[in-house]
Design a protein that fits this description.
Layout (H helix, E strand, L loop, with lengths): L1 E2 L4 H12 L4 E5 L15 E5 L5 H11 L3 E4 L6 H6 L1 H22 L4 E5 L26 H20 L2 E7 L2 E2 L8 H13 L6 E4 L5 E3 L1 E2 H14 L5 E4 L4 E3 H10 L6 E4 L17 H7 L7 H17 L1
Parallel strand pairs: 1-2, 1-4, 2-3, 4-5, 5-6, 6-11, 7-10, 8-13
Antiparallel strand pairs: 9-12
Helix pairs in contact: 1-7, 2-4, 4-5, 6-8, 6-10
Length: 315
């Protein structure tokens, strides 16, 4: 069972699960877009469920009786969490609470993926890079707070109810289908629109001096699958490339692959309060447990993101 099956990571995970021969049950919000669905989406059994409504969630879980649950549905944009902190907190926390309570009500024993985030760690102190699972949690955004809560709730339900929750803290992941409110797809869309003559040849950016740990979304969802197959219930695992890349270098890469000459301007509206300066993952615990390794180079991912937005702009 995959919640948020029509989202960025959810659609890639569904595609991966189908390729493994698994039977996939997808939950999506009523009336939400199906644009992200993988091509063999007819093989997915879809359930329109409002996850903040406990009865709806319990009813669906009792019908599906899943062996594995990937709870991916969430308000995932850090920038939006500043605009709507209450909506972010209530949505992310209550939705997961209802999934866990639904499992208890259904009297089943699936393994459950609890999706945290590198945003839980906030800004590391000197000497704390690369970030290990033992690092203090110091979230600097409402989104980060919601993810700390989901993380700790997963641990609490493991201890108090015996639910087989495996917690992961994925670092930044990229790929086709990611919404433009995230920084890299926003940059790629601007390049594509400038190439098509739909905007002036200027790319508007926020703080591009920050450094992040980027992984292709297809590598990331493969990690989610391995986390449920081999991860220990109650444990938490970082997932990321282990390589720190500056946003400036990504901007330069996109400019170098643009078909038109572009300039760059900083846009104050794109700056975030409490922005994390540097973040990179120590993934050794997860690799030792599952054998996972990222396989897709960042350059390939960036080119595919740019081509995705060129196609979207043409359409």
């Amino acid at each position: 069972m995959v919640t948020g099956v029509n989202g960025f990571a959810g659609s890639h995970l569904a595609e991966y699960l189908l390729a493994q021969g698994d039977e996939v049950f997808g939950m999506l919000r009523p009336g939400s877009s199906s644009a992200n669905f993988p091509s063999p989406c007819q093989a997915i059994s879809l359930y329109e469920v409002e996850l903040t409504q406990a009865e709806e969630v319990t009813r669906a879980i009792k019908e599906i009786m899943p062996e594995l649950i990937f709870h991916l549905a969430a308000q995932a944009a850090v920038a939006r969490s500043w605009e709507d902190p209450q909506g972010t907190l209530s949505n992310n926390i209550i939705a997961q609470l209802n999934v866990l309570q639904g499992v208890i009500a259904a009297q089943i024993d699936p393994k459950i993926l609890i999706l945290g985030s590198n945003e839980e760690y906030g800004t590391p102190c000197p000497g704390e890079l690369p970030i290990r699972e033992e690092n203090p949690l110091r979230p600097t955004s409402p989104y980060g707070v919601s993810k700390v809560t989901q993380d700790m709730m997963g641990y609490q339900y493991f201890r108090s109810h015996g639910l087989r929750c495996v917690r992961v803290r994925p670092f930044n992941h990229l790929g086709a289908r990611q919404r433009e409110e995230f920084v890299v797809p926003s940059l790629a869309k601007q390049v594509a629109e400038a190439e098509a003559g739909l905007r002036e040849p200027v790319i508007h950016v926020g703080n591009i001096e920050v450094k992040r740990d980027f992984t292709d979304v297809r590598d990331m969802v493969r990690g989610y699958y391995l986390a449920l197959l081999h991860g220990e219930p109650g444990e938490v695992y970082n997932i990321g490339s282990g390589t720190m890349t500056s946003l400036r270098s990504i901007v330069d890469f996109l400019l170098n692959h643009s078909r038109v000459s572009l300039s760059v301007e900083q846009d104050a509206s794109r700056l975030r309060p409490g922005d994390i300066t540097e973040s990179v993952c120590d993934c050794s615990k997860f690799k030792a447990k599952t054998g996972w390794q990222p396989e897709i180079p960042l350059e390939q991912t960036l080119l595919e993101v740019l081509e995705y937005w060129r196609k979207r702009v043409r359409e």
